[in-house]
């Protein structure tokens, strides 16, 4: 390869060149000998809410286990916390219900009697969660269809 510098031509050999990839802020780069991949590392508000929803699913499933639910048991679930959580449950409520086998997922100021409860500390505060048996199983709902 030849380059012009101050009006003079210079030959540059491949072993004399070093190419470095430097990502712009908010991006990550990975490469091999053939490909370069750029990935945005910016967390949107929706992605943050999805992360909270996944944490809630984990906590609800831990509560299911603590309460002695069988794998096929449906549950009634409640939550209580600040208003920011409403956005999480509005956007990801169906996902949370599906992943935890909750036939009901409602906001409550206090946990219902005889419910297994737990809390999850989040950036925006703490959320109180509760689970109790729905009295039916996933098999019962499939038979009704």
Explain what you see:
Helix content is 32%, strand content 36%. By secondary structure, it is an alpha+beta fold. It folds into two domains: 39 residues, no CATH class; 100 residues. A four-stranded mixed sheet has the order 6-5-8-7. Helix 1 packs across helix 2. The radius of gyration is 26 Å and the shape is elongated. The model has no long low-confidence stretch (mean pLDDT 90).
Task: Kindly list the characteristics that best describe this protein.
145 residues; alpha+beta; 4-stranded mixed β-sheet; two-stranded antiparallel ribbon; 8 strands; 36% strand
State the helix count.
3
- Average pLDDT metric: 90
Let me know the number of strands. Answer: 8
The largest sheet has its strands arranged as 6-5-8-7
Give the termini separation.
71 Å
Q: What is the number of independent domains?
A: 2
Poorly predicted sequence stretches spanning 5 or more consecutive residues: none
Largest sheet: 4 strands, mixed
Element order: H for helix, E for strand: EEEEHEHEEEH
Short description:
This protein has 3 helices and 8 strands. The protein has helices at residues 45-67, 84-100, 138-144; strands at residues 2-5, 8-11, 27-31, 36-40, 73-80, 102-107, 116-122, 125-137.
Map the helices and strands:
Layout: E1 2-5, E2 8-11, E3 27-31, E4 36-40, H1 45-67, E5 73-80, H2 84-100, E6 102-107, E7 116-122, E8 125-137, H3 138-144
Parallel strand pairs: 5-6
Antiparallel strand pairs: 1-2, 3-4, 5-8, 7-8
